[in-house]
Automatic annotation (TrEMBL):
Molecular-function GO terms, alphabetical: ATP binding; ATP hydrolysis activity
Occurrences of domain ABC transporter (ranges): 28-276
Pfam annotation, one family: ABC_tran
SMART domains assigned: AAA
Swiss-Prot/TrEMBL keywords: ATP-binding, Nucleotide-binding, Transport
Lineage: Bacteria, Pseudomonadati, Pseudomonadota, Alphaproteobacteria, Rhodobacterales
Organism superkingdom: Bacteria
Any one annotated GO CC term: plasma membrane
Protein name: Branched-chain amino acid transport ATP-binding protein LivG
PANTHER family (UniProt xref): ABC TRANSPORTER ATP-BINDING PROTEIN, CONSERVED COMPONENT OF ABC TRANSPORTER FOR NATURAL AMINO ACIDS-RELATED
Organism: Roseicyclus elongatus DSM 19469
Signal sequence, renumbered to the chain: none
Length: 279
C-alpha cells in the first residue's frame, strides 16, 4: 500500500503515508523476545516495533511462532527472555484483564463468542472494562449504574452501525454464517475501544467476498478510530494490500521486517515460503 514511503528511523517521529494516513511514533516495542514451551523454542530472540496507527502484519509458514508472538503482545504469555515496551515503559507481567485496561483487545483464530447470546449482547461484553459501577452502586446509586448502561449500549450500537450488522443485532450468534460471526467478533473487540487491536487470522475460512468485506472494515477501523492493528494472516494478497509493515517469522526466528515491497523481495523470505533448506 505504502511502498514508496518508508517510516523514519527516529522512533518518536511520525509520518504520513501515500494515501494520507498519519502514522505516529513507536507505541510498542518487542526487545529480544525468547519464548519456550519446555524444550520447544517458539520464539527466538525477536525484536521489532509497532507504530501508533499502523497496520502491522506478522506472517510466516505454519508453526513459525506467529500465534505465540501475538500472545506475547497481548500479555497472555510472558517470555522467558526479553522485554515488551509499551507506551515508553517496560510492561510488567499482568493478568489479561489488566492488559485489556491498558487498551489492548483481540480476536481469536477460532471464534470465541457466546453462541446463545444475541449479537448486541456479545458486543456489550466487550464493554466490561468500561463498566465502573459496582454492585453497591447499582443498589444505592441506581442512576449512576443506569447512566453507565445507557452509555455502554450507545457505544455498542455505534459499533454495530459502523460494521453494518444492524439487521442482525437481535439474532443469536449461533445462527449466523461464519463470515458474520467473524465480524461480530471484530465488533466485540472494538467495543473495548482499544488502542491496539490484535487480529488472529481475521480472514481464515472466508470466501472471496467475505474477505473483501473484512479487509474494508479493517481499513475503515484504522482510518476512522486511528486504531493500531496487528494481524496474523495467511492470505498473502490480503497482507500485502492491507499492511504498512510486515514482520516475517520462520522456525521462531525473524527473517524479514519492512514494507510489503521490501518483504516481497527478501530472498530469505522467498526461500522460506518455497521451502528451501536452511542448512
Ligand atoms: N502451548 C504450547 N505448548 C507447547 N508448544 C507450543 C504451544 N504453543 C505453540 N507451541 C509450539 O510453538 C511453535 C510455534 O507455534 P505457533 O502456534 O506460535 O506458530 P504459528 O506460526 O502461529 O502456526 P500456525 O500458522 O500453524 O497457527 C510450534 O512448534 C508449536 O508446536
Amino acid at each position: 500500500m505504502n511502498e514508496a514511503i518508508h517510516p523514519p528511523i527516529n522512533p518518536h517521529e511520525g509520518y504520513v503515508t501515500e494515501d494520507g494516513r498519519t502514522i505516529g511514533g513507536v507505541v510498542m516495542e518487542m526487545k529480544h523476545i525468547t519464548l519456550r514451551f519446555g524444550g520447544v523454542e517458539a520464539i527466538k530472540d525477536i525484536s521489532f516495533d509497532i507504530r501508533e496507527g499502523e497496520i502491522r502484519a506478522i506472517i510466516g509458514p505454519n508453526g513459525a511462532g506467529k500465534s505465540s508472538m501475538l500472545n506475547v503482545i497481548s500479555g497472555f504469555y510472558n517470555p522467558q527472555e526479553g522485554e515488551v515496551w509499551y507506551k515508553g515503559a517496560i510492561r510488567k507481567p499482568m493478568k489479561p484483564y489488566q492488559v485489556a485496561r491498558q487498551g489492548i483487545a483481540r480476536t481469536f483464530q477460532n471464534i470465541a463468542l457466546f453462541e446463545g447470546m444475541t449479537v448486541l449482547d456479545n458486543v456489550m461484553t466487550g464493554r466490561l472494562n468500561h463498566m465502573k459501577a459496582s454492585f453497591l452502586d447499582q443498589g444505592l446509586w441506581w442512576g449512576k449504574a443506569q447512566r453507565e448502561e445507557v452509555e455502554n449500549r450507545e457505544k455498542a450500537e455505534e459499533i454495530i452501525d459502523f460494521l453494518e450488522i444492524q439487521a442482525i443485532r437481535k439474532t443469536p450468534v449461533g445462527r449466523l454464517p461464519y463470515g458474520l460471526k467473524k465480524r461480530v467478533e471484530l465488533a466485540r473487540a472494538l467495543a473495548a475501544e482499544p488502542r491496539i487491536l490484535l487480529l488472529d487470522e481475521p480472514m481464515a475460512g472466508m470466501n472471496v467476498e467475505e474477505k473483501e468485506d473484512m479487509s474494508r472494515f479493517i481499513l475503515d477501523v484504522n482510518d476512522e478510530f486511528g486504531t493500531t492493528i496487528v494481524l496474523i494472516e495467511h492470505d498473502m494478497g490480503v497482507v500485502m494490500d492491507l499492511s504498512d509493515r510486515v514482520v516475517v517469522m520462520d522456525y521462531g526466528k525473524k527473517i524479514g521486517d519492512g514494507t510489503p515491497d521490501e518483504v516481497r523481495n527478501n530472498q530469505e523470505v522467498i526461500d522460506a515460503y518455497l521451502g528451501v533448506s536452511h542448512d
